[in-house]
Write a structure and sequence with these properties.
single chain, 107 residues, mainly alpha, two-stranded parallel ribbon, 49% helix, globular
């Protein structure tokens, strides 16, 4: 009783993807579940090896506030943001967002 999980790594899931991909290799499909708030997060997840991203929290908020139109706007915004991010990285397609091409930086 009263114990804490101090041993847990507190890195954000998105930031841990690269190490996870390095550990499991390419034989597994790596999916990100959580932490996607903007299009840059989708591109960063792909860069670090994710092949699929679940978009959780933004979608129920969009449904609650604006129904289907709200969800469509959220998803369109995520994809548009990811496209802009990919453009800043010099990538024309998802396939060009490589997991082994250095570090992810837009600065």
């Amino acid at each position: 009783a009263g114990e804490r999980a101090d041993v847990l790594d507190r890195r954000a899931t998105l930031d841990a993807l690269g190490a996870i991909r390095a550990e499991v290799g390419e034989q597994l499909v790596l999916m990100l579940d959580g932490g996607v708030r903007q299009g840059e997060d989708l591109a960063k997840a792909r860069f670090h090896g994710a092949r699929f991203c679940w978009v959780g929290r933004p979608t129920p908020f969009a449904v609650a506030s604006h129904g289907q139109v709200g969800v469509e706007q959220v998803l369109r915004g995520l994809l548009d943001g990811a496209g802009r991010t990919m453009g800043m990285l010099g990538c024309r397609s998802w396939a060009e967002v490589e997991t082994s091409s250095g570090s992810f930086s837009l600065a």
